[in-house]
Write a structure and sequence with these properties.
Two copies of one chain form a homodimer. Helices cover about 70% and strands about 0% of the residues of chain A. Chain A has eleven helices and no strands. The first copy, chain A, is elongated, with a radius of gyration of 21 Å. The two termini of chain A are about 40 Å apart.
């Protein structure tokens, strides 16, 4: 983490503490600036608004994930999973801050909405990256993969900040590895179709047609 | 569709046409009311704001999907897929309106954000429903399923309103059927593990542990 990011994180830390103590609406930018020992002008050089402070670390995370993917050279599907694990690891390191954010966000409808929009940006980043790196893969397979990957990360992160789980980055990695990559190139892959014994033949036909259409 | 819904849809239709012609910001509620032949007061009895008009049919869709799930009696995973197909079918029937909305929404950042939040409500509806109906299934499997299901629907819907796809409800049904239900009860199911020949043993072990942990 560079100097600017560390500085921003200190301000974020003070702001979230004040939001938790006094409420989000009741806390002014002047109070945040005073608590962080900076001027109002310096605050607005770093953040566009009070709301931006709440999501500043997401912005940093998104930038880091994008940089990671830009430099990745191996299997693109693995790269997306590793980018996600990287985000999770960094949130684990600033767990108290993430937990405090969670408690503030869930009480303010506008912040909850903004969080949903922010989370969606990770999904779009991963989709755009995969599209640019894998050829000949059904776009739907790609979309399903990034949706499941992002949802998995968010689920484990939410449990962590609520103190309901001690999931490690390794647990996340295993959960991500279990997400199928339907569009994966089939070289050297043996396809075995497995269905519940009671599945209707029509559905089996649909599944097979779809699966084989992707290979 | 009941009388009130049909009436609302007429107002939505006029509003989206005006937004497309004059721009969203430049169009006033008075202009919408006049075009729809209703009073300002009647408008505000149906919609809380100008923004609400844009997403009114999503509200109706969500209510219908919720009612469908509430009445569904068969396999809960199938019920979610059928609820999604129902939403898609209804959007197909008002395709011009959905296409006009798409063109308006993509030009206004606030509306794009609101759409992301709206879309997320479907995902949460499906997750809550599945949680209430299936027992003993890993929550993660459930989350991954509803994320992939919702993303699949949104992808095909977006292509439809952009005029880039003629995907039918049957195509959507097949694409949804291909999404694995990892947490599915294993009674009568034969498990065969299939991996690419070049997969590292560590990753195979992770995948097996995760998959078997869910059964």
């Amino acid at each position: 983490m560079d100097e600017t990011s560390r500085f921003k994180l200190t301000v974020v830390d003070h702001a979230l503490r004040l939001f938790a103590e006094k409420g989000y609406e009741a806390t002014t930018v002047d109070e945040i600036a005073e608590a962080a020992g900076i001027s109002r002008r310096t605050f607005f050089r770093q953040f566009r608004s009070k709301e931006d402070v709440v999501f500043a670390d997401h912005e940093a995370q998104l930038a880091q994930a994008e940089a990671f993917l830009g430099a990745a050279t191996g299997d693109p599907w693995d790269a997306v999973c590793e980018a996600v694990v990287g985000v999770f690891e960094r949130f684990s390191q600033t767990r108290e801050l993430a937990a405090r954010r969670y408690r503030v966000v869930r009480q303010v409808a506008a912040l909850r909405d903004r969080e949903i929009v922010t989370v969606f940006r990770y999904e779009r980043l991963f989709t755009d990256y995969l599209r640019s790196r894998v050829a000949g893969v059904d776009d739907l397979a790609l979309i399903q993969f990034t949706a499941a990957v992002t949802a998995t990360h968010n689920y484990l992160l939410r449990r962590m900040v609520r103190g309901r789980s001690e999931a490690s980055p390794g647990d996340l990695r295993a959960a991500l590895a279990a997400i199928p990559r339907l569009g994966r190139e089939s070289a050297g892959e043996l396809v075995v179709a497995v269905f519940p014994r009671d599945m209707p033949p029509g559905r089996i036909a649909d599944l097979l047609a779809h699966r084989l259409g992707n290979l």
